[in-house]
Design a protein that fits this description.
The protein has 16 helices and eight strands. It is α/β, with parallel strands linked by helices and 326 residues long. It has two domains: 150 residues, 3-Layer(aba) Sandwich (Rossmann fold), CATH 3.40.50; 163 residues, no CATH class. The longest helix has 19 residues.
Amino acid sequence: MASSAPAAVLKQIAANQPDPIYLILGEDEIEKSALAHEFEALVEEELRPFNVERIHAGDLSSGDKFAAAVSSLVSATRTLPMMAPCRVVIVLRAEALLIPKRESEAATRALEALEALLKEPEPQTILVLVAASMDRRSRMFKLLSKQATIVECGVLYDVSDAERWIKARAGAAGVAIEPAGARLLAQRDGTDVTRLRNDVDRLMLYALGQKTVTVDDVRQIAGPETLHDDWAMTNAIEAGDGAAALRQLALILDGGAAPEKVLGQIGWVVRSKFPALAPGSLKAAIDAVFRTDVDLKSSGGDARILLERLVAELCTWRRQRGYARA
């Protein structure tokens, strides 16, 4: 078998032409989980309880545990599908099975059984092995290189890959993103995973509390390059750096961000960071955020001035009453 990109695997699934065994590798747990989930589409939804099985390899610290896990996997894979053309068996943390930590007679026999399964896969079962990493010099990896389709996650090949990555990342946060929004962000950031991750994190913060992220939300985040300073305002507030926080606030507002959205970001800092960084200021900080929210909604002053006052207060309280960083 050959290596394949996630997008190519999705095409195989959509065409109902999967390979018998897949090895999904990479450190991006969200992307791996999302891709593994897509294999469930090979079985009709009402039949999935009978024909889709997820196995967590987990702790296999003894030879007996390893042997039991392999036995369960072989049994699940060899089971015939019920009222469906195929079964799907997904193994999470598969490195525990593929790279056993303990050597014993039981583990050796189990490893031989696992190798036999991989050499002669069940024709009516799709086996999906999801692992963090593997020693490419190992005997098991060499066997999988011949028998399985190897999929590297965390590596984006084109804009379509980036768009799919953005949707998966948003979905993992419990948020939907409009296709046009995912496309815009993918076109802006390309295949730079670090930049994509930072932008999606900023987008989730910006759209905090929303069920759907719109293309307009993305335009706010993916605006002028001068705004592309990840977490700059929130980091400055967290550090008690009033001057930097006010500069970043000005950039955000000049870029057209809605004051209510900016207040949402500031509120996140207070809720998430102040309990540990400035517990003595927490009540005052919450009251200040609430006061600003009321003033914004009641037109109780210029929005920029209200937000500047809030940021300045938070930074002052952080410096005066917060605890020093370790």
